[in-house]
Amino acid sequence: MRVTSRLLALCCAVVSAHSMAAPVSDLYKVREPVASQQPAEREEALRKAFDTLVLRLTGDSSSDQEAVVQLRNDPQQLVSRYAYEGDAVIVNFDPVTTERALRSAGLSLWGAERPSILAWWLGESANGSQLVGDAQEGSSDLRAAAQHRGLPLRLPLADLSEQLVATPETVTAKDPQALREVSERYDADGLLTVMAKQSGETWQANWRLWVGDKQTQGKASGDTRSVLADEVMLAVSTFLAPQYRVKPGDRAEITLEVLGADVERFAELDRLLEPFGARLQRVESDRLVYRLSASPEQLRAQLALARLQEVAPDEIDMQAIDAAGADAGVEPIGDSDVSAGDAEAQPSNAQSPLDEPGAPASEQSEPADQGTLLRYRW
C-alpha cells in the first residue's frame, strides 16, 4: 500500500494543531490603503503591495537588481486578482509565478513555514498598564501587523495569573525567565516582549526577541498603536529572515537522515523541507532519508523549527542501523526521486510507522547517499 496524497493532507491537518512552527496563511495576499479607485492610485497601490511582498519574502528592502525593478514597474504580471475593500485594495499575487520571477532575479526567499512568535505586549498610558491578550482590545492591531509582515503571531490569554506576571519589570527584563514559565502553555518558537507607552499623540516602544539561542532588541515609534505594531513586526521579520531564507546560489548536495519518524511527523517534515525541493529516497522503519540541495546552516535553522535534534556522527552505530534496516526489509522509493510535498512515498514494510497493513518488501538495492550527510532525530 502507498501513503497517498489524501493521507498526507489529513496528516498535515493533524500536525498543524501540535507543531510549533506555523505556515503563514495568505502569504501572497497584501492589503494596501488607497485614497480612491482611480487607475493611477491603483497602480501605485500595486507597486506598494509588491514592495511589501518582497520585504515579507526576503526581509530585505534594499534590492535594486534590474530584474526586480522591472517587476516593480509592472507588478500586475504577478497579480492573480485584486479587489477593493473599504479604503484598501486587497492584492493576491500568484505564488508560483511570483516565486519563480523573484528567484530568477536572484533573490533569497523565506518560505511560508516560519517560527511562531508569542508576544507579551504591555501598553502603558495615563490609566495604567494593560496586557494585550487574545481577543482583547488592541489584539486586532497586533494581528494585522503580524500578517502584514508575514509572521505567525500568538497572543496570551491575559487571564489574571498572566496579568500578575506580565509587569513592566518582567516585560522589560533582560532575562525572560518569569515569562518563559507562563509561556510554556503556548508552545511557541519565539518570545517577544514589548513595553509600549503612549505619550500625547504618539506611541513608543522598547522590545526584545528571543528565538532559540538568538536574541535581539530595539526601539520603535508610531503615530498610532497600529503603526507602532507594524514597525515592531517589521523589525522582527527583518531579523529572522536571513536565518531561514534560501539563497539560490549558496547550496550544497545534502543527504538528510531523520530518525524517530511516524506518519504525523513525516507530514510535518514534508512541509518544512518544501523550500529546498527535498526528494525522499527511502523509508526504513522510523528512518527517513532525503536528498536535497541547500545551505547546511539554512537547513539546520529550518529543522530547528520542528525541535529536531542533530545527531553527531559518533552517536549512531551505522552498522546497527543498516542491520535493522535489512531485517525490516528496506525498500527504496523507486526508480525516480519523490519530491517533498509531492505524491506517493512507498514505505518499507508492514511494521513501519509510515506503512499501511500488507505493504510488500522489495529486493531492490538502496541508492548510494550523496553529498554532505546530516542526521537528525526527534
Salient structural properties:
Double Stranded RNA Binding Domain, 18 strands, 378 residues, alpha+beta, seven-stranded mixed beta sheet, 3 domains, signal, disordered N terminus, DUF2066 domain-containing protein, DUF2066
Your description of this structure?
The chain is α+β, with helices and mostly antiparallel strands. Helix content is 33%, strand content 26%. It has 12 helices and 18 strands. The chain has helices at 5-15, 39-58, 66-73, 95-104, 139-148, 160-165, 168-171, 177-183, 225-244, 263-272, 296-304, 318-328, and strands at 22-23, 29-33, 79-85, 88-93, 113-114, 117-125, 128-131, 153-154, 190-199, 202-211, 214-222, 252-259, 279-284, 287-294, 309-310, 331-332, 338-339, 372-377. The chain is flat and about 60 Å long. It starts with a helix and ends with a strand. Residues 1-19, 326-336, 343-351 and 356-367 have low confidence and may be disordered. Residues 327-378 are annotated as: Disordered. InterPro entries: DUF2066. It holds the Pfam family DUF2066. Residues 1-21 form the signal peptide.
Topology summary:
Elements: H1 5-15, E1 22-23, E2 29-33, H2 39-58, H3 66-73, E3 79-85, E4 88-93, H4 95-104, E5 113-114, E6 117-125, E7 128-131, H5 139-148, E8 153-154, H6 160-165, H7 168-171, H8 177-183, E9 190-199, E10 202-211, E11 214-222, H9 225-244, E12 252-259, H10 263-272, E13 279-284, E14 287-294, H11 296-304, E15 309-310, H12 318-328, E16 331-332, E17 338-339, E18 372-377
Parallel strand pairs: 6-8, 6-9, 12-18
Antiparallel strand pairs: 1-5, 2-4, 3-4, 6-7, 9-10, 10-11, 12-14, 13-14, 13-16, 13-17, 15-18
Helix pairs in contact: 1-10, 2-9, 5-9
